[in-house]
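Can you give me the bound-state structure? Components:
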Amino acid sequence: MNSWPLWEVFIRSKNGLSHKHVGSLHAADAEMAMENARDVYTRRNEGVSIWVVESRHITASSPNQSEALFEPANDKVYRHPTFYDVPDEIKHM
Amino acid sequence: MENITALEEQFQARIDADERIEPKDWMPDAYRKTLIRQISQHAHSEIVGMLPEGNWITRAPNLRRKVALLAKVQDEAGHGLYLYSACETLGIDRDELLDQLHTGKAKYSSIFNYPTLTWADIGAIGWLVDGAAIMNQVPLCRASYGPYARAMVRVCKEESFHQRQGYEIMLTLSRGTEEQKAMAQDAFNRWWWPSLMMFGPSDKDSKHTAQSMAWRIKRFTNDELRQRFVDVTVPQAEFLGLTVPDDQLSWDEERGHYDFGPIDWDEFWRVVKGDGPCNRQRLRARRKAHEEGAWVREAAMAYAEKRRQRAEAAQSEVA
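Here's the bound-state model for the whole set.
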């Protein structure tokens, strides 16, 4: 028997905040994944909105790519406000 | 070979720096295996743990107790699911995990192989068994493996109500009639020692502790946690007016801890190896539930497939 696919669950805890990954579960389709997510991840008012995404649809970066992806940002200090010298008497900046 | 050694050193350096390990990171095979064993055992314990309590749902003394017990058992199902998901991130799938439970290859906490004979057992389980579980689980919120630690944060948040509802049951019984008080004492007598055994073998006999501590999966040894449990629980028993079933229990002023009598490790190993009062009954109940649920799992897949085809047909009509 083929088993239920895996889904990733994202919950918005209240309006104004982003959905955040909370875990995963198995379900036969999106509608049942939603129902399961309600029971498994929001038994105590943890959310006002749920996203479920079948895990196989997520493309994730690999830890091996970390250098290539994230290191270029390390030496670009000029992207941060503290890189620029502004005299103390200048206010509101 | 050298390559592996270098990777292992880097890995240990990350652990020592208190970094978290995530699913796609490189990890030693033994670390992965240890986590699969521990997390799956933990998940199985939540699932099997529903059985002794489920026994009393229909016979709870009133509606307040009944909704609380229902919610607690439902939480345990949820905890099992969080933990199975965390375990699956290590590359083992759910069917294999369930197979290991059903064939007896994987273990679950031995405490659930004891029967729930009276209503007071529900109080004693919440107070002692969940109390011991919390003692074990709080440090796991800082375990080195990210998905496990995150699942434990959710579990711990929910577990505190379990212990309080148990203590409330014990309090009500111990302030009740002589008969009710005797029932509370009897449950306490039966659950005290198995609860102490929940922390696992004594440090000198625990084959996994040293490595698990080095990997920061565990943060405290079995004996440390057991001592902490005794220290916080004895005053709670005194408040109830119940007697701890241990005539060697005494406060050690110098150590600042309670001394307690020897644990019957023969009983512990007997139950671990399958000869507790309810081992066979528990496994039979799990297998039966799984087998009798097979048609539901298949029907859900068939229904999902039918809906998918209908949606596709509707799409092509529009096009």
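A couple of observations. Chain B touches chain A through 29 residues (CB under 8 Å). The CA atoms of residues 29 and 277 of chain B lie 36 Å apart.
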